[in-house]
Amino acid sequence: MNKLRTAALLLTPCLLWGQPPKEQRDTITLPYEIKTQDLDRARAIHGLVQELMPNTRLSIVWNAPMGLFVLSGPPDVVDRALALLKKYDVPARHVEFTAYLISARKAAAPQAGRGMPGRGGNLETSPTPIPQVLTPAIEEMKRTFNYERFSLLDVNTTQTSGHAEFEGLLDGAVRSTYYRLSYGGLSISADGKTITVPHFEFKLTYRSGMDGVLKSLRGGPATEAPSTGIENEIVIHEGERLVLGRMHFNGSDPSDLFLILTAKVLPVP
Asked: What are the pLDDT digits (tens) for 41-68?
């Protein structure tokens, strides 16, 4: 009997030594499939969860190629991390901006080839009709600025959840107007009706004269007038026609250029 007791006492420590530490026995590992497709947003969520759960034995590894977060830690800690991920990892809402470039004119139409250039040539000789959606804004501009004619120069539609840029060209025979739109970040109100763009930019660069065209063809720098435009924070409500301007380039051309901006929040896919 004493021999059996001795053997049992010797065996017990061996069994204990063969087990992993208690911290490892209490650890679980779970994968979490990331909902957002924006890598910058996924990186931000990864950092946020780590900041909100310091000193909790949580390990959260981002496997970008697989679109996964791998969570490891005590069950209660992993549950808390999963709850945070489900709260913040939601598809980013996209906004559709539509920018209308409008030529407005007070004086009589100039001779052919002297007006504001646009797609297909002088807009005053072959004006593009104003879209009906802009009628309220155009009527208000007529009352405020006393313009006689309005023509559509160009339309650009951009969908973004954060930052977007677009460059376009309003071309004529020997003169061209280049424009650039930049939406630098955005925030959407809780009701989805108000969009704020902290860093909005609309820039025009006017290039004119056959001398500039010849220099460009010869590989040299073209002659450019100084750029002008708008750089500011904008706040726009869904359904609003936000009028931005007025900009004027050529002293011999009586037309002014306006930007009319609309925005709508797109449904979450």
From this structure: 888 899 999 999 988 899 999 998 888 9
